[in-house]
Amino acid sequence: MAGNIIVGVTGASVSRRAVDWAIERATRRRQSIELISVVGGAIGAIGEAEVLGAAQTATQQLLDGEAKRVADAGVPVSTRVESGNPVTKLVEASAGAAVLVIGSDYRGTGSGPARGVHGIRIAAGATCPVVVVPDRDLGEGMGVVVGVDGSDVTEHAIEFAASEADRLGEPLIAVSVWTPVNTPRNAMEVYPDLYLANMQSMTEEVLALSLAGLSSRYPDLRIVRRVERGHPSQVLTAIAADARMVVVGTHGRRALARFLLGSISQELLSHLPTVTAVVR
């Protein structure tokens, strides 16, 4: 995959996890890493230049420390300190990159409210795949989960997920979810068996078509197919909780809509069951 790996670095502890994830990927793929940190908040107030200068110096020292860890791992590394809006600067930096990696301080159910508004906006606006790393020990997860719905963006998500699963030596868990037609309460308490069977069959067919040819490109990749009934984001979140990574596709946005994601991508990023990649 062309381009280097961009990592957004902050003073939060999760940044080390994001850098670690990037180091592992760069080592296996022989890619370089660029560490970027953004100093924000400048409004042009009198005396601000001194404060901004001190912040930039401290930020560069932070990047230098992380860069040493990357270099010690044998990965080519560069650093960059930017000034301005972090979302805008990271979206701009994504142009031409292989992947943009950021961290989120959301630590899972029971740890407080869902976080990651900046992460959602960055994932929506970036021009390359965005990987969001949660700030917690993910344990011994297995497999790379990818959401499949038969759309064009699904193809890119499948390819990214298959490549990551192959890199990690993990199975690819391809998940398609179907949802019964929503009816007013008590209008249809029991769906006809034929309808349910047809929904299952049609979704299985979509999944099979979406995965056609994948085995020829990745002959050593084990592919697990799962067709489930329910709400897509809930099903994906539940399955991904035991996985190394979950990958979803999203349509590229422009103009005022560029910082909006589809509901499935947004819900996954809001709750981060594991390392989550958003691909367009």
TrEMBL record:
Pfam families: Usp. Transmembrane segments: none annotated. Gene3D superfamilies: HUPs. Residues 1-134, 144-280 form the UspA domain. It comes from the Bacteria. InterPro entries: Rossmann-like_a/b/a_fold (IPR014729), Universal_stress_UspA (IPR006015), UspA (IPR006016). Belongs to the universal stress protein A family. This is UspA domain-containing protein. It comes from Microbacterium oleivorans.
